Queue: 3 jobs
Job 1
Amino acid sequence: MNAPRDLLLLSRAGGVWGVDNARVSQVEREAGGYRVELRSAEQVRLLTADEVLGVVRGLPVSTGASPVRRYWAQPFVGLAVHGGTPLVVVDPDRPPGLLLTTEGETSDGNGRDEQKGA
Amino acid sequence: MTAQAEPARDAAPEPTQKHLVVRAGEYLCALPLASVRRVVRALSVRPLPGSSEELRGLSEFAGEPLAVLDLAKLVDAPPGATPEYPVTIVAWAGPAADRELVGLHADAALEVREIATRKVAAGAGGVILGEVSLDDEVARVINLRALGGER
């Protein structure tokens, strides 16, 4: 178990996902759901969510999760539980394809990078 | 004068290990009981899109996230009849130094059996440690240490 984290929780494709709240720069409602903007020094990533569930502070995250890594190829930081619901803590630099919008990611000021597939 | 026969010495007890025997599809599987933490009614899971069929999804157990694997898929068991009371076996998996709890979905938990180590016919490796005859049926002895780390 690693240090507790502040996470923005999203629902998407039947699952619950946690994103480092410090990396969230914008949350916007759009048709059919929400768009979440993650910003770093190098780039902006756009995630899509069915629902935004709120921010949870100090959530313990299990970073081992070997059985999951063994059978699910998407990168992730770890797993957590909130309110009895298990969730995947997303790597903000490599979110799973199903969370990316069709716009995918952009580099900062240099046009669009290659879209990441699902 | 006739020679007196030596009284038979007690044979050394055969090493055995307790196993939980479960039904997964059409196979019997034997899990080392020392690694089993709890057997519960089948936990509800949230599937992870795009995961292998061995991973049923994520659940929660004792306040912690728990990956639930499909034991029948892990051992390539043919599907059996729809189980009436499926279970999740919460067990320690992976190497001893990095063991983690994992849930194993099975059709039924049947009994605890002592299995003699020498009677386990070695398997090809991986998740199935070997096979042993239990009454009229063959049981796959599961190697829970193989469930940790990269595939």
Job 2
Amino acid sequence: MLKDKKFFVNSVAVFFDNKIDKENGWETLVCNPVNSNYIKVNPEGYKILRVIEENPGLNFFEVVFKAKKNEDVAQKFLQKMIDENVVFVQ
Amino acid sequence: MRKHFYFRINWRDLEKISSIESVIKNLHLPKNKFPPRIFVKKKDFFVAGYFVSYNPKVIIKKLVSLCRKKAWEEIAAFNGDFLILYCDMKENKIFVISDQTGKFPCYFSTTAETIVLSTSFYDVFKSVRSPSLDIGKALEFIYRDIKVTDKTVIREVQLLPPATLGEFKSDGNYEIKTLLEINKFMNTPFKRYSSLEEFGDVFLETLDGLVKERLETLSEINFSAEISSGFDSSLICYLLKKNSPKSFISYCEIAKAATKDTQSNIVKEFARKHDLGVKFVPYDHFFPFSTKDDFEWIRRGPSYIQKSQAYNLFYLMKKNGNLARFTGDGGDEAYWSNEDDLNLEFRFPLQKYYFENMALRRYGVDKVLTEKGLNAFFDKERFRQKNLYPLFISHSAVTLQLITFPLYWETEVWPMSPYMDTRLIQIARGIPSKGEEKRDLKQEIWKGKDDIFTEGQFREKGGTEEQYKRFLTEKKEFAISVLKSSLLGEKGWVKSSETVNDISKGKIQTYYEGEVMGYLINLLELEYFIQQNNVKVP
């Protein structure tokens, strides 16, 4: 269950740059480091990833609170990111 | 060595240009048969360089007019081979622009007093009093990074990236500006093909036109072609035969240890099918560091290609009266330029660049770089500080031209690269390639074309590793000697001592794994260059 996990961003799977990210309307590209597949991330997902990257080890509710996102949206997104090895949990 | 385009001027002279002659005296503009040299001088400006445009067809008068209007974006969009220096006496500025393909590199160095510009990296390098190594670029070189930026391995020497404008002002400042209009290119309507066969037909028709254009431009100039047992160069040879009444020779490099790359029987069969004249050029005795000439080339600037081998080929073409050679350069990359990939490349260039480099970690770079070297290389902040310049033609194809320039300039055999044309990239945007492995793509596209290709060509093509890895055994003394004096090793960037130990004891199997051999070759080239030229290493 995601809701009792702590979240961490896989640093090799993400690359944030405020200038470029702003120019792209806070969309970004992440990469599954296992199969090198690219995944486009929309602004909602971007916010979630940045929150976790800046605050490693947050639990699900802390992520939702800090990112100000809907729980269902966050859950679906985070599961996708875990499946793609962009986020890992403990 | 043949002289290069070279321009050196003091900022002070640029500020107060007394006469156009006072500026021109600083310019060396050697003659060149193709592309031809251009030089137009008026009272308050001059235009100098080399220029040919395949599309649109542009006469010099029109080019000069565009320069006067500062219509740089329009010039940059040409499909042609050119380097243009424009000196504006009214504004006291120098403008430099080169074409999209990297065929004319332009290196420069600036100090508080001077600007030096040249197509020769070495000539600009020699103008620097106390050269120092750009460690980031040096690590990228070892890693065989092919991204075109404004940096070189020497901190004080920069590259003007293709299709950018270098503007040099009399106050000592300069600016590099991207000229390619990405949105315009990506907003151009294109067709999404329903099948690879349909795509192949349009691709072929377009390529046919591009070859014809280039043949028309060459006019009376004799040309040759390169050919291997793959699809790219052989398709060019087929189109040359179809479109030119002139006889020409296709040159095929072969080596006993490199039959995975090219097999002579496949080339012979193709040649018979299309009545092509082929000359086989053995390169068995060429591998990294195998000849004295290699060291002289490396001393003048490290690069990824086997220089004496390439020089040998071009010299042979020149000896046989050719001033141009058609190549398959950019072929692979043209097929890979689908809409999705281009979108990612232009929207997320830095992210893609970082991820592409991270993906290569698994190929053994930690065998050559120390922890310090790896940490520096993969530092995200280093990537964030990069200036990236978009290109429609792939960076790997452009890099190949940039690094081969010294050889084809020296031999005066100009590369004609029909695949490196933006019109082909526009076609490729619509390729239906989802799910196809890159290596299988060409085979799928051309499988119905038995009027062009032979059965033998539909095979998995390998590389030339078996040939090139010979240096580790046959030139091991050189490798040991260079690494024992390693300046990069001394500063903790590379594992020079471990490598010396391994090579001395014959423990070299690990260097044949992944891409380690390539990293080691690049390290040795770079190390030889910096040792020979007393470059300061941080």
Job 3
Amino acid sequence: MGGSILCAAQIVMMEQPIYALVDCNNFYASCERVFRPSLRDKPVIVLSNNDGCAIARSNEAKALGIAMGAPLHEIQDIVRQHNVAVFSSNYQLYGDMSARVMESLRHFCPDMEVYSIDEAFFRLDGFRDRDLTEFCSHIRQAVLQWTGIPISIGIAHTKTLAKVANHIAKKRTVTGVFEMLDPNLRTELLKKWPVEELWGVGRKWSVALRMLGIGTAWQFKNADIRMIRKRFSVVGERIARELQGISCLQLEEVKPKQQIICSRSFGQLQKKIEPIEEAVSNFAARGGEKLRSQKSVAQGIQVFVTTNRFRLQDAQYANSALITFPIPTSDTAQLVKAAKKGLQAIFQAGYNYKKAGIMLMDILPETQQQGHLFLPSALASDPRRAALMTAIDKTNAHMGKNTIFLAAQGTKLGWQPRSDQRSPRYTTQWTELLRVH
Amino acid sequence: MEQVLKSNRDESGRMQRPPNVLPGIIEILGRLCTSLPLYSCGVSAGFPSPADDHMECTLDLHKHVVQHPQATFFVRAAGDSMIGAGIFDGDILVVDRSLAPKHGNVVIALAEGHFTVKTLHINGVKQLKPENPNHAPIPILDNSDIEIWGVVSYVLHRLL
């Protein structure tokens, strides 16, 4: 694999790359606000469909002390007292809005990599001679006007530094854009940046680093690199080098949790469906492997294709389709089948396709799958489940009702149906369009 | 007139699903091309060339109507405040957020946080004007809480 480390003199002689991290502010809440503008500046939370825990919070909701992952029944009082708007996850809407934001970003910068449902990295090397802050402000304005989604942009020489810049852009600027290319400015900011908030540094590493006296990004950057390599693996070493301004971290080494994206730009433009079908099947299979390796399942898969926006002689087309699984899955056969089906629905002949990919959405641990035991299709297809249900029934009959019950079934508050607070699918269902008088 | 209009539409004002779209659990985004795929030919988006005159493709209504897919949303008209502009209850409006609103455009606006569809007047008396004498205009004053959400480029009215 690449990532050869250059010596300091070589770096000085080369021009450093310029990265921008673009991410959407409070993405799920922002999606809801596009169609419910009265919720701007109000506390909004989005609950996971599976277990009713808060997976997204607007800034106002965070300020009320609602923690990430808080179950609804624990925050009922805050919700009632402060009139917090509660939504079930509407990932058909979020997936569509994400596709709109990403396509809008592609208008401006060809070298773009989608990292998660609401984040993307740009390479701005080609724009080096422009006023980057002004350029990114323009991009931000355009995305906000076209899609209604506010974004923040951080500019720096490595992805890790761009993440820091992005955080500053979001929390400390009015413009939503922050450039951290100047080395003195960078030094000043890294000295105050806690290691916990560094991309790729989890809780375990933060604790270990602090025990070694490394509490800030600055200290991490200056630590003995061989020690870092030994204690924190090659990923830790790469983070340290990125802080020094050497770009060497692969996106796959720092995975987002809520989605898995597999995509690729084609070396040669593709006109036929067969090679693209093969590509998305491979992506779906790889996605399945990643899911299983982290013991997760996905509730949906989005397939997308796009032409090369910068080939002006080509007709342009981009589209995506989202397939929902009634039972969350990590089964390769199911994922591949869904990916192919989605591709067939959106593929249009007559275009030169540049890129295709899949995004697995709403990922959850495979242990959290209780609801599906009640789906008739599950019983019909799996004799073991039928046997399990029989055993449960027999035990309950013998030892008394509800000796065995599903945890989701028997809380004091009762079993809550999923998705009952989902907003309309404004952009993917004709029957759920926004109504205007 | 209203009776005639209503009888030409089913209760939910539902549009028919295009024949080449797969049913079931697939959510197709609004940008899907609805042409019947008799020919596979791409239409050049660059400068016109002599060859273009000889290229004939099945007409693609979606591409014709949706100029800017990322910024285009479909919304449903409710009520009769804009019948003078040919917008009737249940019609689908094509809203383009990338267009700069101009005087005389039909716009989707937010007035005090509520969505409304009206004609924008900014020359002379500034107001959001209905196209129905039974409805009152919404004045646009310095302290009004009014925002333009998008410009309506097309209205789709079903006759059957």
